[in-house]
Write a structure and sequence with these properties.
Layout lengths: L3 E2 L2 H4 L3 H7 L4 E6 L2 E13 L27 E6 L3 E8 L6 E12 L1 H7 L12 H8 L16 E5 L7 E4 L13 E4 L9
Antiparallel strand pairs: 1-7, 2-3, 2-7, 3-6, 3-9, 4-5, 5-6, 8-9
The structure holds a DNA duplex (13 and 13 nucleotides).
DNA sequence: AGAATGATCCTCT
DNA sequence: GAGGATCATTCTC
């Protein structure tokens, strides 16, 4: 598997654009169980200004402060008392944007992912933001890690060219529900819901 | 349709 | 500080 790590400049841009550009990229985790990777097929943008669904909407807190910092870091948080969700921090320092990685298509380390996921069927391994982190073994120990420096967790471009992108309302939020900031690859069976 | 399950944050004292 | 609503979900019934 050959890929180029996405550089800092990739993330230092408009969040809605990056949510679309991340489709087709590889999420890579050098986990204790081995190298895990999956192709990102679904994302959501949480934008810097006017987005009431963003954790950063009401300002900086201990949890969300990484969103206000340098782009290209992970934002991992614990939700519903049992799930971890993974974001990539976007925008210039001081501007709080992030892209939620919602679903991916397993590429390598598939057996380890299945073991992490109680042997769920292939298309359900990473087909939701908490399923994906469960399959990858991602938790808050990876919160704030740099995705650019070639550490344990990174995102790469292996030359894959995504096909048609669909957009629609984001899932599971109660505010700012009218913004169509969910993006996914049309027809991909690993998307969390059509 | 409802349970599981706990960190986080807002709103008061 | 304490109380309580909320929660970028998933699984099972």
């Amino acid at each position: 598997m050959d890929f180029d790590i996405l550089p800092r400049s990739f993330y230092a841009a408009d969040t809605v654009d990056i949510a679309q550009l991340l489709l087709g990229k590889l999420l890579i985790h050098h986990s204790p169980a081995g190298l895990l990777s999956a192709r990102i097929v679904e994302t959501e943008a949480y934008v810097a200004v006017g987005d009431e669904a963003s954790h950063a909407y009401r300002g900086i807190t201990p949890r969300n402060s990484v969103m206000f910092g340098e782009p290209g870091h992970a934002y991992v948080y614990f939700s519903y008392g049992m799930h971890y969700l993974l974001n990539a921090v976007t925008e210039a320092p001081g501007v709080a944007g992030a892209v939620l990685i919602r679903a991916a298509e397993p590429v390598s380390g598939v057996a380890a992912m299945a073991a992490n996921r109680k042997n769920a069927k292939h298309t359900l391994l990473c087909s939701g933001p908490a399923r994906l982190t469960s399959a990858f073994g991602i938790d808050t120990s990876l919160d704030r890690v740099d995705l650019v420096e070639g550490g344990l967790l990174t995102i790469g471009d292996d030359g894959f060219r995504r096909t048609h992108i669909v957009s629609g309302p984001r899932i599971g939020i109660t505010r700012s529900i009218d913004f169509p900031w969910r993006y996914y690859i049309r027809g991909n069976p690993h998307v969390s819901r059509p």
